[in-house]
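Researcher: Please translate sequence to structure tokens.
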Amino acid sequence: MTDSSPFQPTILIADDEEVNREYLSELLSRQGYRTLEAHDGIHALQILRSQQVDLALLDVMMPGQTGYSVCHEAKSNPTTRLIPVVLITGLNRGEDRIKGIEGGADDFLSKPVDRAELLARVRSLLRLKSFTDELESAETVLCSLAISIEAKDPYTVGHCDRLSVFAEAMGGRLGLSPELCIALRRGGIVHDLGKVAVPEHILRKPGRLTPEERRIMEEHPIVGERIRAPLKSFRHVLPIIRHHHEKLDGSGYPDGLKGSAIPLTARILSTVDVYDALTTDRPYRKAFTRAEALGVMREEAQRGWWDADLIRELELILDQSEQPHTQASVAS
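Model: Translation complete:
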């Protein structure tokens, strides 16, 4: 085995020709890799969806579903999209490779497969996959930390999930790019991550905070941004974390930004954040009804705090979600 680590990467080999599968499986097994075999595209997709796979080698010309089709479906599925895919083909036309690239293929091998080239490509892609796995683990840990912070306060249970859903929905309504909609979903979960640095007695204090306590509380967006900054995949989330407590008139924190200087994604999250806070029980008051909460937000928008257009968008989203939500509740 070339790697002294106990971890044994799993490679899927999909080819309708048994002799080809056996050749690749034997070659890779000798290098210490675990192999799985699929005899056609449908079988390959079943394995990808049901088992832990670190790399897929797909023959292009398979019956049922081609390697192109399998690759496209795998890359379109959030649970399998990060699995590296190598297309193995006897087709050498430029348009064939372009089709594979458009389907999300990470690499190509031409038939007959050269042993040295195959092993070099496999090692390279598995290294990249290990880096991706480490990044996903870091993101998972930080998201779990954010949820654990939320769980300390019985009044905010479910708050992050609700913000995540409504912020992403608003981003979609406004026509934001998929990347920014994903950032809004993630931002809903981790926006208050910086509260890990705020003492619990301040977080749960039922009365007014002292000036010093407020200073500590108002640093949490900066702390949250600092925690997430090393993760490049969260670059669109950082402005949401830092600026979701800004107000249009400049009276918010931590930077006192005004108007359009506040990123739109941060304004979206602050809109749904305020609504959720108003419609949730607090130690010092009962939850407002939907109508009461929206009324308060409209009044505060007239003071120059919130974006009135975004409040209207939120109301439309609430209208759309109300009936399906009721049906789901009845069904459960």
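Researcher: Any highlights?
Model: Residues 115-151 form the longest helix (37 residues).
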